[in-house]
Amino acid sequence: MQTLDGTDLRLLLELAKDPRRTVVALAQKLGLSRNTVQARMSALESRNVFLSFERRINPVSLGYPLLAFISIHVQQHKLGALTDSLAQIPEVVEAFGLTGAADLLVRVVCTDAEDLFRINGKIQACDGVERTDTSLAMGELIPFRLNPLLQRGPRHTG
Amino acid sequence: MQTLDGTDLRLLLELAKDPRRTVVALAQKLGLSRNTVQARMSALESRNVFLSFERRINPVSLGYPLLAFISIHVQQHKLGALTDSLAQIPEVVEAFGLTGAADLLVRVVCTDAEDLFRINGKIQACDGVERTDTSLAMGELIPFRLNPLLQRGPRHTG
DNA sequence: GCAAAATAGTGCATTTTGCTCAATTTCGCG
DNA sequence: CGCGAAATTGAGCAAAATGCACTATTTTGC
């Protein structure tokens, strides 16, 4: 997966400003022809530059105002099965395998403290889980952003 | 911010399947009139159900294949200033204030291990930082998803 | 059961899309 | 420097989608 060039980045920046911009409007804004923009967009699509739309949905709107991160210590050989178990819990919205102190970091959304308690129990009940450490997110200090990296320009093209 | 009803959820589900679906196609798919879908979409927009488009951009495509989570212990009263400092580091893509062991959880993308080392140093150099714990994400076991929660339906309407 | 809100249906001008084709420019590389 | 491939441009055109408005009809909350 090769890196993107400056034009791609400018496209992405404009999209970040307004995701509903039309191809025509983008072409005009960037001083490119419509064909070029359309080709670029298709290329971005097929290169999997765009992640799932679900990422743009606000969990708060869905009725899950609470966010928590749960670190999990796992019995190593059971990691595969555990991933499947975690995938069965709807409130688990994201999970990573980690180096360092903990083995797994799980992102969880929930309706309230009681709900979090319940979900945490569910996780602890999964086969392979040795210990969990739950941290409630008190504030979104820096909401997800890629803008600074987009503006910095392409990384050493090649 | 009131919760969404079943129709909104079905809309979001369809959008998750294919974000580029037109209003017309959505209306047809859901058995609604175009007017209704258009009104719903506007309502979702103005209710801030949609988060920034940046969330859909793949950092790997941008040339940042590595992802890390850094826990930070902070001198409490310096949290505000620290947030500003962290915001100045482009590779910091997300940050949360936490309860529990650590005070801050920071999500960082980088080009390679050396890059991560450099960024970690930058964070440690910030005023207010007492200690950091870095974990490299070895695998995206469960990529971000909201689908299970969407399919579950609306949370106790009211 | 009433009033307000949501939905459906219709219409129309304008814009956007998807597609193709040929000419031109830019770029990689020997 | 110069060749050939790739990218970009401009044009055209039919089909589709959008934005807007207006009026019934249905659904909903109280």
UniProtKB/TrEMBL annotation, chains A, B:
GO cellular-component terms in the record? cytosol
> A single GO molecular function, which one?
sequence-specific DNA binding
Instruction: Give the source's domain of life in one word.
Output: Bacteria
PROSITE patterns this protein is in? HTH_ASNC_2 (PS50956)
What are the record keywords, sorted? DNA-binding, Transcription, Transcription regulation
What SUPFAM superfamilies does this protein's entry cite? Answer: Dimeric alpha+beta barrel (SSF54909), Winged helix' DNA-binding domain (SSF46785)
State any GO BP term from the record: response to amino acid
HTH asnC-type domain sequence ranges: 4-65
This one is known as: Lrp/AsnC family transcriptional regulator
